[in-house]
Amino acid sequence: MGAAPIQNIGAYGVELRDVFERLEAIDLQTGATRSFSAEDCVFGYRDSIFKRALKGRYCISRVHLRLTKRAVVNTSYGAIREQLAAQQIMEPGIREVSEAVMAIRRAKLPDPADLGNAGSFFKNPELDPERFERLRDRCPEVPHYLLATGRVKVPAAWLIEQCGWKGKRFGQVGSHARQALVLVNYGGASGSDLYELSQSIAASVEARFGIALSAEVNLW
Ligand SMILES: Cc1cc2nc3c(=O)[nH]c(=O)nc-3n(C[C@H](O)[C@H](O)[C@H](O)COP(=O)(O)OP(=O)(O)OC[C@H]3O[C@@H](n4cnc5c(N)ncnc54)[C@H](O)[C@@H]3O)c2cc1C
After folding, report:
1. For position 103, what pLDDT does the model report?
2. Could you name the CATH architecture of 116-209?
3. Which residue, judged by its Cα, is nearest atom 24 of ligand 1?
4. Taking the model in full, what pTM does it have?
């Protein structure tokens, strides 16, 4: 739970900040407890002040969420709509949406208990509308997700797949066969092995699409 606000965890069109009220954290330098509002946390896409100015400074000890008693179902994300349609669920409740999310993840993501992996290695790039239109002129089939800010999110996995990395294995590291964005360790690979693969992937995406991928994971 403490890690959830660190990168404002999110998936399928919902982020922690949508239900976040406040958190309490212990200052590791002074021992004092401080309360942070959502504004104080400076949440962004997979981002917060705890990944930036306050990195490593606080231990988050309590997180307060505000949930609603009336279910608000968010099925705006394509993968969820497709999953519910495949199950012929027309009016999903929160349990159906929850089960659809779990089914998608089981189908697409490796289980860390079976296959070591770094989750989604890169953030999905957010493009300004003009930049996105230039991309769509070249690749009309590009999947995308329109953000409230007017910017357009493009799946990093799609960009990586277009560059031919999906499912490719190099020694003990590789891009996962069912989700190109997930970099996996088949056993015995080092952090440098994974890092080098990530650099090669980012370089090829930049060369082909002119889009610089940035890492979602922490690099040590
Ligand atoms: C297969 C896979 C799929 C994933 N899918 C998603 C996804 O869809 N969306 C998404 O947002 N993320 C995703 N991730 C990333 C994952 O959600 C985050 O890394 C998660 O929040 C980590 O939780 P954890 O408890 O394992 O934290 P850890 O990995 O242990 O810690 C993450 C960071 O938070 C810090 N931290 C942990 N607890 C505290 C605390 N109490 N106070 C201060 N700092 C703390 C750690 O020092 C570290 O820097 C995925 C990861 C994997 C492996």
Report:
1. 93
2. Alpha-Beta Complex (3.90)
3. 3
4. 0.87
- Mean model confidence pLDDT for the chain: 95
Q: Tell which residue, 13, 64, 68, has the closest CA to residue 38.
A: 64
Whether residue 148 has pLDDT greater than 90:
no
As a whole number, mean pLDDT of residues 65-73 equals: 89
User: 178: Cβ below 6 Å to ligand 1?
Assistant: no
Residue 98: what residue type?
A: S
At position 41, the amino acid (one-letter code) is C
The H or E element that residue 26 is part of is: strand 20-27
Whole-angstrom distance, CA of residue 5 vs CA of residue 9: 7
Report whether residue 55 contacts ligand 1, using a CB cutoff of 6 Å. no
Q: Which residues share a beta bridge with 122?
A: 215
Residue 11: band (very low, low, confident or very high) from pLDDT cuts 50, 70, 90: confident
> Given a cut of 90, is residue 116 above it in pLDDT?
yes
- Parse the chain into domains and list their residue ranges: 3-65, 78-108, 116-209
CA atoms within 13 A on the CB side of 100: 27
Is 46 noted as a catalytic residue in this protein? yes
What is the Cα–Cα distance from 124 to 158, expressed in whole angstroms? 10
- Altogether, the residues listed in the chain come to a count of 220
Q: What is the pLDDT of residues 165-199, one digit of tens each?
A: 999 999 999 999 999 999 999 999 999 999 999 99
Residues 6+ apart with CB under 8 A from 180: 157, 158, 160, 161, 165, 166, 167
Percent of the chain with pLDDT over 90: 84
Q: Does domain 3-65 have CATH number 3.65.10.10?
A: no
Does ligand 1 lie within 6 Å of residue 218's CB atom? yes
